Amino acid sequence: MTSDDRRPEPKGRGAGRNGPVVAALLVLIAVFVALGVWQVQRRAWKHELIAAVNTRTTAVPVAVPGPDQWPRITQQRDAYRHVTAQGHFLAGKDTLVQAVTELGGGYWVVTPLDTGGFTLLVNRGFVPQDRKRGYAPAPQGVVTVTGLLRVTEPGGGFLRSNKPAADQWYSRDVAAIAAARRLSRAAPYFVDADATLDVPGGPKGGLTVVRFSDNHLMYALTWFGMALLSAWAIYYVRRQGAGVRASNEGDTDASQ
Description:
Blueprint: H1 13-17, H2 19-58, E1 62-63, H3 75-78, E2 82-89, E3 95-101, E4 104-114, E5 119-128, E6 143-151, E7 156-157, E8 160-161, H4 174-180, E9 186-193, H5 216-255
Parallel strand pairs: 1-2, 5-9
Antiparallel strand pairs: 2-4, 2-6, 3-4, 4-5, 6-9, 7-8
Helix pairs in contact: 2-5
């Protein structure tokens, strides 16, 4: 059989072979664009949240929510609200929750406050590791607590679960702490106290970190960039297919 007897490859065969690749790239472009748009939306939501939290933390403190308001408390609407409460601390019922702060590693000292109508867990502040057993007790008598409302942190910390039976705590899980300390009518939130109750040798209050990661613009640009790369890949694949087709047509003309 001579070269003249070989049947030329049908026109469009080179481009047809790339059809599945182009289709897959089109799907990827749609996915990447959708992810980019989602990140843009997340960025707008995050900025609204940051503005709302900044407003809450600097507002005049209001009374902590009572039992009739508990079912409506949410993280998005109530976290970091500037609040105040009055009552007396319950001695001997502190809970130490492991923490890492700007002062180093140690513990949050969480003490229940009897408000007269319900029990409120108050994070009085931070004590370092070496003062785990030697910090000053909560003040006695009627006290006024001012701070930021925080929604419960159930379960534990990263890769570490709370162990109530061993009195080992890695998060401020209100329900679990209330059960372990046999507290009645405990509010479903706790309060990070400011520094107004600080005493020498006691926990250091006012260390709440109000900071939110805001990398959504970078993520959005990354996804949109991936979409552009995929579009360029389609152009490249189609161009290569066109080159193959032109080469086949040239071979066909030469053989005639």
